[in-house]
Write a structure and sequence with these properties.
Number of domains: 3
Strand content: 35-45%
CATH class of the largest domain: Mainly Beta
Helix content: under 10%
Structural class: mainly beta
Number of helices: 5
Oligomer: single chain
CATH topology of the largest domain: Porin
CATH architecture of the largest domain: Beta Barrel
Distance between the termini: 80 Å
Length: about 700
């Protein structure tokens, strides 16, 4: 259970840090920026690299870009209409390397270029997606490097698990098979790419073979091609150069495509003077090992887009030529995915992996006939009624503000709580601890932008508790007075640790800050972000404890209830009694939620002010009621069976005996440092389910018709 708490706490802290770190997530490239020889540019997971118009990153040294599956590095142009150039590797660095792992590159003129006579010890490109490079330049261009023929000086050039979507250029590799550079290609997928012109001799993967070829310098695993075209010709992998005899042969583990796979290979079978590829396995895309979901063809008639698919590709958007959404229902029938729509002219399908599929255009004969509607000519009539005019204006202007739908919402919260009171954290406002806070609630919205919420919350707040799921720092030093008029500071503030258990019932008024139309009439299939503020009143039950360390080897930490201790002398002073266990509270909150259909995902920041000063057991009374011995004798008897000690006395009294008594502590000073009651912050994330009435409530004020004369 403690591990679970810590995992939840870590998750919450990461969420809290997102806003603080967001500005550091973006790296901007402008003009020409150079990584000099001997230097290494490192880009960590989750970073966004933006290229301004015409910007180039020149690498004369090393570059290491390491993303993760969950946090890839994103490289893109700031403006797709004025794209950046990309990354250019040039020059010689014998100890340098190029590493790119889990990187998404889009919208650059030439994402990656290796200039002639370059040299690096190794190039490792892995788990990359390159898309929307539409300049016609090669997407990746590897020019002939400087070939160092000494033993152990071969360039190791690896490309593994790369995907190329929606580009208008090829991948071009030079000096393939030559001594001095070892190419290792595996799991390269090319889908929906186009090449300028209509030349089938240049594929989306083009291999320029060296004149002199050595065994073992070129290794190819699996290659997959889906809907790549040069003009109207389907293209895949192509070869050129070599020694001119066509005798060279290169082994390929597998080539995968749709229909006639052999047509995707341009080698000696098409031109006897160029080398050949010996392919062990030619098969359909369903046999490709690295990707299982493809759209292979489509048919479009008005109101319906039918796509032949392999696997289970997920459509996330259907748009027209202006980028506006075309709302649709998806239906799977065997190997066909059907998108049905009522209006619009869709041209682009976007899949969950980011790939865009161009929908065939409708012909004139396929377009529906025009729809003619009767037009109300009341406003142009000479005998028009002002009453009709005002009603039209009322409906168009007031409707979003006078109509709504009543709704119920039931949800749960989970998050953390931070104490704010007499005892301060060592590095305030940074908290000492974060404790868990969990809630359930029911919410009713009977008005257009106002709702009422009833919440039950179970939480803890603490200071310097090693049992808290999140322990950051201790407490700020407290200044004590002595009987001689001087002062001193305790040597160990941990002695004042506390953990308070809270049970809260709260009633809140929630006021949405968005337009009434957005709150009430957003279509169910469309998600919407809403923000709101909350003001609440409630009742609070609280029980403060302090952790005492015992000699019990199994459970050395015990929580001692502080209320029975009467630390201000409530147990023996006339007219004094222990403070209660109930208090009132007032809260202010900010809510941010994402609503789609009946589900709501939300977050909350909440500040709670209580009516008690005893959440931390530190009230405005005197220390030990001004008489330590009288307080000590009034303690209830609670002896631990393990060490035969009085836990209540040990939790507080020993501190006075060992330190404060020696320093002549003035017991007449008040314990609380101010006159303000205690409170706490809460941070929550949650999920809710909505039930709403389909009937629209109309509270519009009728506008009284004006007489015509």
């Amino acid at each position: 259970m403690n591990k679970l708490r810590k995992y939840i706490f870590v998750f919450l802290v990461q969420c809290l840090c997102i806003a603080a770190s967001f500005s550091q997530e973006t790296m901007r490239i402008n003009g020409t920026q150079i990584v000099k020889k001997g230097e290494t540019l490192t880009i960590d997971a989750g970073r966004i690299v933006e290229f301004e118009a015409g910007a180039t990153l020149i690498v004369e040294g090393s570059i290491v870009v390491r993303g993760t599956t969950d946090q890839p590095v994103i490289m893109k142009s700031m403006d797709l209409q004025n794209p950046g150039n990309g990354i250019m590797v040039k020059g010689i660095d014998e100890n340098g390397s190029v590493v790119m792992d889990n990187v998404r590159i889009s919208g650059l003129i030439q994402p990656l270029r290796f200039d002639p006579f370059w040299y690096r010890k190794s190039v490792d490109l892995k788990s990359m997606v390159i898309s929307s490079a539409n300049s016609g330049e090669p997407v990746i261009y590897v020019a002939g490097p400087l070939l160092d023929l000494r033993d152990g000086m071969d360039i190791r050039f690896s490309m593994n698990s790369l995907k190329f979507y929606n580009n208008s250029g090829s991948v071009l590799l030079e000096k393939v098979g030559s001594d001095g550079i070892v190419y290792d290609l595996d799991k390269l997928l090319f889908s929906d790419n186009t090449l300028p012109g209509s030349d089938a001799t240049m594929g989306v993967l083009h291999l320029d073979i060296a004149r002199s070829v050595s065994v073992g310098q070129f290794k190819v695993g699996e290659l997959a091609f889906n809907r790549n075209f040069s003009g109207d010709k389907s293209v895949g992998v192509s070869m050129s150069s070599g020694n001119g005899t066509g005798a060279e042969k290169f082994e390929v583990q597998g080539v995968f495509g749709n229909d006639n796979v052999s047509d995707l290979i341009y080698d000696r079978r098409a031109n006897v003077r160029i080398p050949s590829l010996e392919v062990k396995n030619m098969a359909g895309l369903d046999k490709y090992s690295d990707e299982k979901n493809f759209i292979v063809s489509s048919n479009h008639m008005f109101g319906k887009v039918q796509m032949k698919v392999i696997g289970n590709p997920t459509v996330v958007k259907l748009e027209d030529s202006l980028g506006k959404p075309v709302y649709n229902n998806a239906l799977r029938k065997g190997d066909t995915l059907e998108l049905n729509y009522l209006e619009g002219n869709p041209t682009v399908v976007t899949l969950s992996n980011g790939e865009k599929f161009m929908v065939p255009k409708l012909t004139v004969s396929q377009l529906p006939s025009p729809i003619y509607r009767n037009i109300d000519t009341t406003l142009t009539s000479i005998g028009m009624s002002l009453d009709s005019l005002f009603r039209k204006l009322k409906d168009s202007i007031e409707t979003p503000y006078t109509k709504w739908k009543n709704s119920w919402e039931y949800g749960i919260w989970t998050g953390g709580a931070i104490f704010k009171g007499d005892i301060r954290a060592k590095f305030d406002p940074f908290p000492s601890t974060i404790e868990l806070s969990n809630s359930i609630y029911a919410q009713y919205k009977p008005f257009r932008k106002t709702a009422f919420r009833l919440t039950f919350n179970s939480a803890r707040v603490s200071m310097h508790s090693i049992l808290a799921p999140g322990l950051f720092t201790g407490m700020a030093p407290m200044q004590f007075k002595d009987s001689l008029g001087g002062g001193f500071t305790p040597t160990n503030m941990w002695r004042f640790n506390f953990t308070t258990v809270l049970k809260e019932l709260n009633f809140e008024t929630i006021i949405y800050l968005n337009s009434s139309k957005k709150v009430n009439f957003t279509p169910e299939h469309k998600g919407v972000w809403l923000s709101a503020i909350g003001l609440g009143l409630g009742a609070l039950k609280y029980d403060p404890y302090r952790m005492a360390v015992t000699d019990d080897p199994i459970n050395p930490y015990k929580l001692i209830a502080l209320r029975p201790l009467g630390t201000e002398g409530q147990n023996f002073l006339p007219g004094k009694k222990q403070y209660g266990q109930f208090a009132a509270n007032f809260s202010m909150a900010y809510n941010l939620e994402f609503k789609k259909g009946r589900w709501v995902f939300k977050g909350e920041l909440r500040r709670v002010f209580s009516s008690t000063d005893y959440l931390d057991d530190m009230g405005s009374g005197k220390w030990y009621g001004g008489d330590y011995e009288a307080w000590k004798s009034s303690l209830p008897t609670q002896v631990d069976p393990i060490d035969a000690k009085n836990d209540m006395l040990a939790s507080i009294g020993t501190y006075y005996e060992t330190e404060y008594k020696v320093k002549n502590m003035d017991l007449g000073t008040p314990r609380s440092k101010d006159f303000f009651p205690d409170g706490y912050f809460q941070m929550h994330m949650g999920i809710a389910y909505r039930l709403f009435d389909s009937k629209v409530v109309d509270k519009a004020r009728f506008i009284k018709p004006l007489p015509l004369w």
